[in-house]
Amino acid sequence: MGRMKIREVNALERGKAKVQQCHDPTRLLAVRLLHRLFIPWVAVEDEKRLPLDGNAKIFAFNHNNSFETLPLALYLAFKRRGMGLTFLSDWMYGRLPVIGWLFRQVDPVYVGNKPARYGFLNRGRRRTSIAVKAYAECIERLKKNESIGIFPEGTRNRCPDLLLRGRQGIGEIVLRSGVPVVPIGIDFPTRLKRGYIPVVGSMILRIGPSLDFSREISAAASMEEKGISPFARRRIWAFLRKTVTHSVMSVLAELCGKRYPYPPPVMIPEADGIW
Fold this sequence. Notes:
Layout: H1 8-12, H2 25-38, E1 42-45, E2 58-61, H3 69-79, E3 85-90, H4 99-104, E4 109-111, H5 130-143, E5 147-150, H6 169-177, E6 181-187, H7 189-194, E7 203-207, H8 214-225, H9 230-256
Parallel strand pairs: 1-7, 2-5, 2-6, 3-4, 3-5
Antiparallel strand pairs: 6-7
């Protein structure tokens, strides 16, 4: 696993690429118009933390409902002046009338693991592996200095108090790309006042400081140099992946006002000396 080419980190040359802006006038106009439509629904805290340097970033969010994705994506696309941003999204949204067109304006990577609620959408669908296809495409986008947006909970979570266990795909992407994570917590005035998550409603975005995982990335890269066995390498990689995921989820919990009820990963003997 460590050979999943930590060298990909070097390929990114973080910070050296120029700002990539969207030059499609139709798409830019659509983003601006849609932003005006949805901006009344969004309040932002600590907006100065939003990175605008043009370098690739992994934006991580908690996930509450289907509605939040579109205003969130439009806000980021507008504020980042059209810089590339890819969201992981359920494939079915790309096939819905109108909604599909709106989602395509933020250039998503569709994940095809589960069937749609409406049977007609499943016709001609090819099942894909999120671990192989979607994550690989995310790595490719990051190599091109585009940013990605991911919901580590992996599904909508209407619980007003607790986050779901974070899925380790975000840890995998961080270790393979070396790109920092920008956590953004999503909250709702309705949750604060009435104690529940609305299906549709005004949102609060709380932007956290960028998370740098250079220690974990360096530890992963050093495995080949130290001649660690393939078995131990897989165990260390899994530990590092869980560590990154837990760190991201813990920060998201602070930002969104929910609690993350899961303990950090337990240190393993194989990691002694590189961690």
